[in-house]
Amino acid sequence: MVGAIILAAGSGSRIGTPKYRLPLGTSTFLQTIVAQATRLGLSPIVCVVSSAERSLIAAQTGGSVRIVVNAKPERGMLSSVIEGLRHLVESPGALVMPVDHPYVSDSTISALVRRIGVHPDHLIKPVFQGRGGHPVLIPAAAFHAVLEADYSVSLREVIASSGIQVERLEVEDEGVVRNINLPGDLRTAE
């Protein structure tokens, strides 16, 4: 069973609030992504959060996910990936789902999970019209390299130096490249 790491530790400084709180219909970004991961059978689901937001996120997820605190999220996204991955070491892969990408379709996530069955040693990255996006699926073969990485590098650099092959999976899903960073991004996403 492929696990999920939902990255929700950022402060959202450019948009003015932590992104997991942003509304999406009658839900929030975080609730939307948790519901999707649950619906698609990803397990376990780990949500990496800052210590300041832990109780609020736990309330939003209703105990349906494992909450993991990144004590120093300012170290960058890789630090949150590492914190989450520590709880998925028995999984054949980990789908890394940034909370600012709530528009990814179910069919894209299902396609990513199916591809790891075909290429279990490849990192699977969705691509829309030539642009790489999220979520990415890290294979178990790369877990050690990621867990041992220095926080100063990016996941891309870790994978490149590990020798793990990257499969770029073409999808017809603009959601993989539609992330929300600024207030104007919310208006264009509606």
Description:
The chain is an alpha/beta fold. The protein has one domain (3-177): Spore Coat Polysaccharide Biosynthesis Protein SpsA, Chain A, CATH 3.90.550.10. The chain has 7 helices and 10 strands. The protein has a 5-stranded mixed beta sheet with strand order 5-4-1-6-9, sandwiched between helices. A 3-stranded mixed beta sheet has the order 8-7-10. The longest helix has 13 residues, at 106-118. The protein is globular. The mean pLDDT is 91.
**Radius of gyration (Å):** 15 Å
Strand % is 15-25%
Q: Could you state the order of secondary-structure elements as H and E?
A: EEEHEHEHEHEEEHHEH
Parts with pLDDT < 50 across at least 5 consecutive residues: none
Biggest pleated sheet: 5 strands, mixed
Tell me the number of strands. Answer: 10
Helix content: 25-40%
Secondary structure class reads: alpha/beta
Mean pLDDT: 91
